[in-house]
Amino acid sequence: MLALSFFLPASAAEQPARPLAELSVGDAVVLGVVEGVTEFLPVSSTGHLIIANRVLGLGSEKQLADRTGRPLWHKPPSPEHPDGVPLTLKLAADTYTVIIQVGAIGAVLLLYWRQVLSMFIGLLGRSSAGYRLLRNVLLAFLPVAIIGFLLHDLIDRYLFSIWTVIGALIAGAIVMLWAERWRRSNSGIGYSKGDPSSLSARKALGIGLAQCLALWPGMSRSMVTIVGGYLAGLNAAKAAEFSFLVGLPTLAGAALYKAARSGPAMIEVFGWPDVLLGAGVAAISALLAVKFLVHFISRHGLALFAYYRLALAFVLLLLYLF
């Protein structure tokens, strides 16, 4: 599916720069769908992207070269990085899947524009409910932002392995089954409004601390925030809604951070058209996934997603072993 294109140094030197490795339209669509759907469903976008990258052949860690055959570097050798960080297809693909989250952000803004507008009005001091919702979103976002920033390199180095993802998928499934049982047995406990703006600052911060578990690849940010919403007294639909709103700064922060660190390298490898296509597909698929999730868990809860996670863990195990 993936066509690597290296160019000769002669007359090509005067031609406009072209990407080193062009994704096919099919590749970009697949990655956009996987990212858009799994980012908001409690099933782990990381686990699905591992499968997608494996199937599409985007996991190569061989150092890329320019059209003259000279090796390319993401970070050239230096006193800080004696061995350097080579520019690879895997590095570009990992960055790609984070940056096209911008499309998923757009989908949430479109669906929940009233809540976003309410937060903006609250910031101006014209809506107490909007102010409380903004406060709660920020309190739920700050812990993962701080811890994620401080531990980013360690997480990339030690937690991004097939075994940690499989373990997170299984652990997350167990948590979901427990949380669903807890919610059903405590269905009479909660807030009369059942709205994210009714959460206390302490409850919102608790959801934020729970979201830090999603730094464990495979755990799922959506899953931990929905479960946190359950425990804070929100019903299933409102817990999902709060998860989507908290995802706005979380996903935007991750996309900006990744773009600053390796965005230019990704563009050098894939080019802009593939990025725009992936983001557009992610937006459409995320919009459909969000509407589906709210409708589904309001009626059936999280149990089916937990069983799906167990099946996904089994598939990843087979991929790793064979």
Task: List the keywords.
single chain; 322 residues; mainly alpha; two-stranded antiparallel ribbon; two-stranded antiparallel sheet; 12 helices; 4 strands; 68% helix; disordered N terminus
Q: Helical segment tally? A: 12
Number of strand segments? 4
Distance between the termini: 21 Å
**Biggest sheet statistics:** 2 strands, antiparallel
- Helical content band: 55-70%
Number of domains: 1
How would you sum up the global shape?
Answer: globular
Order of helices and strands: EEHHEEHHHHHHHHHH
Q: Give me the Rg, rounded.
A: 21 Å
The low-confidence parts are 1-17
Strand order of the largest sheet: 1-2
**Structural class label:** mainly alpha
DSSP strand (E) fraction?
under 5%
On the 0-100 scale, what is the average pLDDT? 86
Characterization of this structure:
The chain is mainly alpha-helical. The protein has one domain (3-11, 18-321). The protein has twelve helices and four strands. The relative contact order is 0.18. Strands 1-2 form a two-stranded antiparallel sheet. Strands 3-4 form a two-stranded antiparallel ribbon.
Task: Summarize this structure briefly.
The chain has 322 residues and is an all-alpha fold.
Helix and strand arrangement:
Layout: E1 3-4, E2 21-22, H1 25-38, H2 45-56, E3 73-75, E4 85-86, H3 89-99, H4 101-111, H5 113-123, H6 128-158, H7 162-185, H8 201-211, H9 221-232, H10 236-270, H11 272-300, H12 303-321
Antiparallel strand pairs: 1-2, 3-4
